[in-house]
Amino acid sequence: MTLPRPAKPQDGLIWITGASSGIGEALTRRLVRQGWRVAISARNAEKLNALAAEAPDQIIPAPVDITDASAVEAAVAGLEAEHGAIACAVLNAGIYITIDAANPKFEDYAKTFEVNLNGTAACLTALTPRMSARRSGQIAIVSSATAFGGMPTASAYGATKAALVNMAECLRIELHRHGVLIQCVTPGFVETPAQDDNEFPKPFMVSADTAAQRIAAGLDSKRFEITFPRRFTWMLKLIYALPRAWRIPLVRKQTGWDKPLDQ
Ligand SMILES: NC(=O)c1ccc[n+]([C@@H]2O[C@H](COP(=O)([O-])OP(=O)(O)OC[C@H]3O[C@@H](n4cnc5c(N)ncnc54)[C@H](OP(=O)(O)O)[C@@H]3O)[C@@H](O)[C@H]2O)c1
Questions:
Q1: Are 132 and 82 in contact (CB under 8 A)?
Q2: Residue 244 domain-assigned?
Q3: How confident is the model at residue 193 (pLDDT cuts 50, 70, 90)?
């Protein structure tokens, strides 16, 4: 049996979704410096082309909307036919829409599920048969520390990110004997455009470059979870290890959701 192992630049391409901005953009630059040929996807082709122009020999723009499963399959098939096997994929594309639970919009739930869950599933559907057939490959799914437990306004985003941790764990169990390494990334707050509209306090927020450095280091390991900044994510894990009867009032208090509504 071929045991799963971290991919190396000589094994083929690394594919990053959500590479037109934030963490994906910073990770692209870092992996280029590490010698990878990087295929980058997002919807905004102009931004992908601008990033690719920084290292035309190493960066391959592959614009695609991950919610279109047949377009994702075509993009992956095209990349592999033209540039060789995808040895590693970082499924990072995602959106964050806050939900006001007292006044929600169904479209906000649906859109979040569509991109974060169905979009990731579309990428997996294109990747895992190819990697399993080759008996090698590595996939890191980008979740969030929000996955650890409930947070106010995160009833859509948090639900998708918790589901992604479960999805990654199922795949890790199942694809081990196929030689495919599955990992899950659970960042705390990272300074990116996704945080621009988030009015929430953002303790221990790290830069996109720091996030990229931590993800790149995690990709070099076999560990399941790549989490950072640890002083924040481990503190959250401790809080969420408490019984719900304690942790729910604690999170409510810590986030200010214990204050009475204005009359
Ligand atoms: N920032 C944080 O604090 C934080 C914390 C934990 C986890 N995360 C996760 O990290 C990942 C990256 O987040 P970020 O902060 O770097 O956000 P960002 O700057 O908003 O980047 C999101 C990326 O996803 C792409 N994207 C969105 N919808 C897409 C679609 N339908 N098809 C293809 N690409 C799509 C966007 O490109 P286009 O708009 O061009 O398509 C963009 O490149 C997300 O999964 C996010 O949930 C972020």
A1: no
A2: no
A3: confident
